[in-house]
Design a protein that fits this description.
Blueprint lengths: L1 H12 L2 E8 L2 E10 L4 H12 L5 E12 L1 H14 L5 E5 L3 H9 L7 E3 L2 H12 L13
Parallel strand pairs: 2-3, 3-4, 4-5
Antiparallel strand pairs: 1-2
Length: 142
Protein backbone atom coordinates (compact mmCIF):
# COMPACT_ATOMS: atom_id res chain seq x y z
CA UNK A 1 0.00 0.00 0.00
CA UNK A 2 2.79 2.37 0.88
CA UNK A 3 4.50 1.92 -2.52
CA UNK A 4 1.26 2.57 -4.40
CA UNK A 5 0.66 5.89 -2.60
CA UNK A 6 4.20 6.98 -3.41
CA UNK A 7 3.79 6.03 -7.10
CA UNK A 8 0.46 7.90 -7.39
CA UNK A 9 2.03 11.01 -5.82
CA UNK A 10 4.91 10.82 -8.31
CA UNK A 11 2.47 10.56 -11.24
CA UNK A 12 0.64 13.66 -10.04
CA UNK A 13 3.81 15.72 -9.75
CA UNK A 14 5.06 15.05 -13.28
CA UNK A 15 1.91 16.19 -15.09
CA UNK A 16 3.11 19.78 -15.42
CA UNK A 17 6.40 21.42 -16.27
CA UNK A 18 7.19 25.12 -16.30
CA UNK A 19 10.14 27.08 -17.57
CA UNK A 20 10.70 30.83 -17.28
CA UNK A 21 12.56 32.65 -20.05
CA UNK A 22 12.55 36.16 -21.52
CA UNK A 23 11.60 37.51 -24.93
CA UNK A 24 12.52 41.13 -25.57
CA UNK A 25 12.76 41.74 -21.80
CA UNK A 26 9.28 40.30 -21.12
CA UNK A 27 9.01 37.22 -18.88
CA UNK A 28 7.57 34.23 -20.76
CA UNK A 29 6.40 31.22 -18.78
CA UNK A 30 6.34 28.05 -20.88
CA UNK A 31 3.86 25.54 -19.46
CA UNK A 32 3.63 21.90 -20.49
CA UNK A 33 1.01 19.39 -19.37
CA UNK A 34 -2.24 19.69 -17.46
CA UNK A 35 -3.25 22.47 -15.10
CA UNK A 36 -5.71 21.07 -12.58
CA UNK A 37 -6.34 20.87 -8.85
CA UNK A 38 -3.25 18.67 -8.40
CA UNK A 39 -0.82 20.74 -10.48
CA UNK A 40 -2.11 24.22 -9.71
CA UNK A 41 0.22 24.74 -6.73
CA UNK A 42 3.25 24.28 -8.97
CA UNK A 43 1.66 26.45 -11.68
CA UNK A 44 0.86 29.15 -9.12
CA UNK A 45 4.45 29.11 -7.83
CA UNK A 46 5.80 29.48 -11.37
CA UNK A 47 3.44 32.37 -12.17
CA UNK A 48 4.35 34.08 -8.88
CA UNK A 49 8.05 33.71 -9.65
CA UNK A 50 7.49 35.39 -13.02
CA UNK A 51 5.57 38.25 -11.40
CA UNK A 52 8.17 38.60 -8.63
CA UNK A 53 10.75 39.58 -11.24
CA UNK A 54 9.12 43.00 -11.12
CA UNK A 55 8.20 43.35 -14.79
CA UNK A 56 4.76 44.88 -15.39
CA UNK A 57 3.58 42.15 -17.76
CA UNK A 58 4.07 38.45 -18.24
CA UNK A 59 3.29 36.06 -21.07
CA UNK A 60 2.16 32.51 -20.45
CA UNK A 61 2.87 30.21 -23.37
CA UNK A 62 0.03 27.65 -23.33
CA UNK A 63 0.91 25.83 -26.57
CA UNK A 64 1.74 22.60 -24.70
CA UNK A 65 -1.08 22.78 -22.12
CA UNK A 66 -3.50 19.96 -22.83
CA UNK A 67 -6.07 20.72 -20.12
CA UNK A 68 -6.91 23.45 -17.62
CA UNK A 69 -9.65 23.40 -15.00
CA UNK A 70 -11.12 26.18 -12.87
CA UNK A 71 -8.19 26.15 -10.45
CA UNK A 72 -5.88 27.13 -13.32
CA UNK A 73 -8.22 29.92 -14.40
CA UNK A 74 -8.29 31.11 -10.79
CA UNK A 75 -4.51 31.28 -10.76
CA UNK A 76 -4.60 33.45 -13.89
CA UNK A 77 -7.14 35.77 -12.26
CA UNK A 78 -4.98 36.07 -9.14
CA UNK A 79 -1.99 36.93 -11.31
CA UNK A 80 -3.99 39.64 -13.07
CA UNK A 81 -4.96 41.12 -9.70
CA UNK A 82 -1.27 41.33 -8.79
CA UNK A 83 -0.28 42.93 -12.11
CA UNK A 84 -3.02 45.54 -12.45
CA UNK A 85 -1.83 47.83 -9.61
CA UNK A 86 1.51 48.22 -11.43
CA UNK A 87 -0.26 48.94 -14.74
CA UNK A 88 0.70 45.49 -15.97
CA UNK A 89 -1.02 42.73 -17.85
CA UNK A 90 -1.20 38.99 -18.35
CA UNK A 91 -0.99 37.62 -21.87
CA UNK A 92 -1.76 34.08 -23.00
CA UNK A 93 -0.45 32.56 -26.21
CA UNK A 94 -1.07 29.24 -27.92
CA UNK A 95 -4.30 28.28 -26.13
CA UNK A 96 -5.89 25.13 -27.51
CA UNK A 97 -9.49 25.09 -28.71
CA UNK A 98 -10.97 23.83 -25.42
CA UNK A 99 -9.15 26.43 -23.31
CA UNK A 100 -10.00 29.20 -25.78
CA UNK A 101 -13.66 28.18 -25.65
CA UNK A 102 -13.69 28.27 -21.84
CA UNK A 103 -12.07 31.71 -21.90
CA UNK A 104 -14.84 32.91 -24.21
CA UNK A 105 -17.71 31.27 -22.32
CA UNK A 106 -16.51 32.72 -19.01
CA UNK A 107 -15.63 36.04 -20.68
CA UNK A 108 -12.13 35.79 -19.22
CA UNK A 109 -10.92 36.61 -22.72
CA UNK A 110 -11.92 40.19 -21.90
CA UNK A 111 -9.57 40.21 -18.89
CA UNK A 112 -6.47 38.52 -20.30
CA UNK A 113 -4.74 39.37 -23.54
CA UNK A 114 -5.15 36.34 -25.80
CA UNK A 115 -2.73 36.14 -28.72
CA UNK A 116 -1.84 33.65 -31.41
CA UNK A 117 1.91 34.31 -31.18
CA UNK A 118 4.42 35.36 -28.56
CA UNK A 119 5.56 38.22 -30.78
CA UNK A 120 2.04 39.71 -30.76
CA UNK A 121 1.90 39.36 -26.97
CA UNK A 122 5.31 41.03 -26.57
CA UNK A 123 4.13 43.92 -28.76
CA UNK A 124 1.02 44.29 -26.57
CA UNK A 125 3.10 44.19 -23.38
CA UNK A 126 5.39 46.92 -24.70
CA UNK A 127 2.40 48.97 -25.84
CA UNK A 128 0.89 48.73 -22.37
CA UNK A 129 4.16 49.89 -20.84
CA UNK A 130 4.39 52.80 -23.30
CA UNK A 131 0.86 53.65 -24.52
CA UNK A 132 2.09 56.58 -26.63
CA UNK A 133 4.04 54.23 -28.93
CA UNK A 134 1.08 53.81 -31.27
CA UNK A 135 1.10 49.98 -31.17
CA UNK A 136 -2.29 48.50 -30.55
CA UNK A 137 -2.63 46.32 -27.46
CA UNK A 138 -5.93 44.84 -28.62
CA UNK A 139 -5.95 41.03 -28.57
CA UNK A 140 -6.35 39.04 -31.76
CA UNK A 141 -9.47 36.86 -31.98
CA UNK A 142 -8.52 33.32 -31.14
Amino acid sequence: MRCRAKREFFMETVRIETKLRHLDDVPVLDVTGEIDIYTTPQFKDAVSAAIDEGKPSIIINMIDVTYMDSSGFGTLLSATRRLRPVEGGLYLTGCNEAISRMLQITRLNTIFGIFATEEEAVAAAHALAQPASGVSAAPVSA
